[in-house]
Amino acid sequence: MTAAKTIYLDYAATTPVDPRVAELMIECLRPEGPHGNPSSGHTFGTRARAMVEKARQQVAAAIGARPECIIWTSGATESDNLAILGVARFHADRGRHVVTSRTEHKAVLDAFKQLEKEGFDVTWLKPGVDGIVRPEQVSEALRPDTQLVSLMHVNNETGVIQDVAAIGAICRERGVAFHVDAAQSAGKLPLNVEAMNIDLLSLTAHKAYGPKGIGVLYIRRRPPLGLRPLSYGGGQETGLRSGTLPTHQIVGMGLAFEVGEREREADVARIAALRERLWQGLAAIGGVELNGHPTERVAGVLNVCFHDIEGESLRFGLRELAVSSGSACASGSDEASYVLRALGRSDQLAQSSIRFSLGRFTTEDDVDRAIAIVSREVTRLRALAPHGT
Amino acid sequence: MEPEYSPTVVDHFERPRNGGHFEAGEGVIRGTAGGVAQGTMFVLSARIADDRIEAVRFEAYGCPHCIAAGSWLSERLVGLTREQLHTWRWRDADQALQFPLEKRGRLLILEDAVHALSEAWARLIP
How far apart, in whole angstroms, are the C-alpha atoms of residue A327 and residue A180? Predict the structure, then answer.
């Protein structure tokens, strides 16, 4: 084993904090920084409050929303839970049918499973083999008692993009609340909650070069969308999410989103070129197939399966690369990815799939070294395998 | 979390000994067990000389423990007689390679491959 640094190609799991964001956060944590409680009325509090509100505007601007629609949470998992459980429970007397897909993030799947336990009727839409849920599927699933649809904008495992604008239009027409988990799309795709008819949107900072532990739930206010809180206490965030606001985290998320939106087009172009370079290099090895739609994908994610290779040996052989097989949240299980299985991949191909995800700080050298390492290991392991497998 | 691998397993996985196979011919035997669909497969081929195993080649499809086991076995079996091959047991490999408990089934497949080799040897003897 060489002592060379592990190459980070796991941006979809989490991103390094952008140095500009880190610097601003560090300033907040210094003795002379805004340590006051943003809910306090004195100057320490109001100083912190001003920074929180500026960050709120920065995030709102990045998604075409008004600042008063932005609720701070601890991350997309909490935002998903708050949106799904909060809205469904609030509107339960209106209808107990809700709709989502089988390939959502676990935070959404498990929230819907909880709704099932509470007596809600859940329709689980199955995407096509390309990972896309067609708007017609949503339209056909809606009933008079449907009150909520939840679909992710970009799938965390495959990078496949859902047509949330078309689905939002359908839901708006039918008077059904529409929640979108945009954890993987912020900073990568244009987001406009008004234009896309989105009523609830989950965001997280740590996939957009911000810190971990902070996220946002966008909630439509005009007309107001009722939502039952998950936590009670100090009444922060208009009573929807109690808890002292973490100024340094919020400031970090605000700047990360502002920078992300400003640099999105340039970032995406550069990352798309690197992803293509990686794909060409991997495809040249042979016996490598793409998982998910070939073009409706975000620039940075490349999920591929390797034929005639056992998954655990492949992952161990590639340990010089920081990559994922299946989602980070699902690691710890020996089971094949439920997302890839839902796209029709066999257990074996699902388990010998690797998700490479590139980002702002990925270089051509990273990509070229990754290709060399993958080529070496795949060739080596295939040569050791019984012939005719 | 991926399993932990002992230094011996890592060594054999990164630098496998005797990968490949012997072409069918005089004094060459072959034993196979498992399958790709099962997630574990071994193909062992050996050259016999003077009633002992002279050399072994292995092919393996499976986890790093399995690749390492094939490599380790390719050295371990050299010099054995047919009787020793017939009575070989998986615990021998487990002691050397420390398979995790949940992977013990794969060692049974390895044992099946060794026994298949011994049966192939028995068929050679007129």
Answer: 18
Question: How far apart (Å, rounded) are the C-alpha atoms in residues A351 and A333?
Answer: 11
Tokens of A267: 């970032």
Indicate which of B13, B30, B45, B101 best probes the interface with A, i.e. most A CBs within 10 Å of its own CB.
B13
Dist CA B108 CA B87 (whole Å): 13
Cβ neighbours, 10 Å, residue B89:
12
Across A301-314, average pLDDT: 94
Q: How many CA atoms lie within 13 A of A244 on its CB side?
A: 10
Question: By the CB < 8 Å criterion, does B13 face chain A?
Answer: yes
Q: Do B60 and A385 touch (CB under 8 A)?
A: yes
Say which residues have a Cβ less than 8 Å from residue A224's Cβ, sequence separation at least 6.
none
SS3 A143: coil
On whether the CB atoms of residues A66 and A205 are closer than 8 A, the answer is no
Question: What ipTM score was computed for the predicted complex, to two decimals?
Answer: 0.94
pLDDT in tens, A231-271: 999 999 999 999 999 999 999 999 999 999 999 999 999 99
Q: Are A155 and A292 in contact (CB under 8 A)?
A: yes
> Can you read off the two tokens belonging to residue A369?
């070294």
Compute the distance between CA of residue A335 and CA of residue A324 in angstroms, rounded to an integer.
14
Q: How confident is the model at residue A342 (pLDDT cuts 50, 70, 90)?
A: confident
Chain centroid to CA B75: how far? Answer: 9
Nearest to A384 among B1, B5, B16 (CB): B16
Question: Measured between alpha carbons, how far is A56 from A52 in angstroms, rounded to an integer?
Answer: 6
Please give chain B's pLDDT, 126 residues, in tens. 567 899 999 999 999 999 999 999 999 999 999 999 889 999 999 999 999 999 999 999 999 999 999 999 999 999 999 999 999 999 999 999 999 999 999 999 999 999 999 999 999 876
Cβ atoms of residues A105 and A152 within 8 Å: yes
d(CA A162, CA A131): 8
> Distance, in angstroms, between B25 CA and closest chain A CA?
18
Rounded CA gap, A267 and A359, in Å? 8
C-alpha distances in Å from residue A68, one per residue of A54, A58, A150, A183, A257: 12, 12, 22, 20, 17
Collect all residues of chain B within an 8 Å Cβ-Cβ radius of residue A331. Answer: 1
* 3-class SS letters over chain B: CCCCCCHHHHHHHHCCCCECCCCCCCCEEEEEEEEHHHCEEEEEEEEEECCEEEEEEEEEECCHHHHHHHHHHHHHCCCCCHHHHHCCCHHHHHHHHCCCHHHHHHHHHHHHHHHHHHHHHHHHCC
